Amino acid sequence: MKTWFRFLFAFLAICSPLALKAQIDIYMKITTVTGNSPSKLNNVQDYKGTVDLTGYIQVSSIQFDFAQTNNSVSGGSTGAGKITFNPLVITKQVNEASGPLFQAMASGSSFPLVDFVLIKSSQGPKVVINKITFKQALVKTMAVSSANCDSVAESISFDYGAYVLTTNSLDDNGTIKSQNIAGWSRLTNTKDINPSVPLK
């Protein structure tokens, strides 16, 4: 009997359940692509230090999901399957990062690391709650839309070879007390918990 296990991560900067307690801002960093983050984001609290988000790209939403297929056998044991990484989809304003992202898509060039930082920013000091890294990320689609707003939005999808999630746990005072890292490479089908090292 074949069973599917699926994990979906969807995050809107304003409409997430997390935002009921605090506003969450999302920023993306891609090597060689300049962003538009506010200059004030240069002293954001992270685990055992701070992070400078100058040059990051502000993002409205991110969504991605994974699927794992196990083959069940009699007796209740399962055989190991291989995880499927479905595309990462982001929404952001059309800005100075749009051109380089399009050029990368047109040329078929991948980015070694695409990093996201999720920040609790509504009250008190700004604190990193999650960092997400996608390795060997390739732009697959770009779609632009406008609805008589002040800005033009675009949706961009990426394929990627590895995923690393860093989660900071906060105490009652909003201070980071611990950190957990999980990750996987679908290229090697092995654990990958080093967000700063590109795939070889």
From TrEMBL:
The keyword Signal applies. Keywords: Signal. The keyword ATP-binding does not apply. It comes from the Bacteria. Residues 1-21 form the signal peptide. Coiled coil: none annotated. This is Type VI secretion system tube protein Hcp. It comes from Spirosoma arboris.
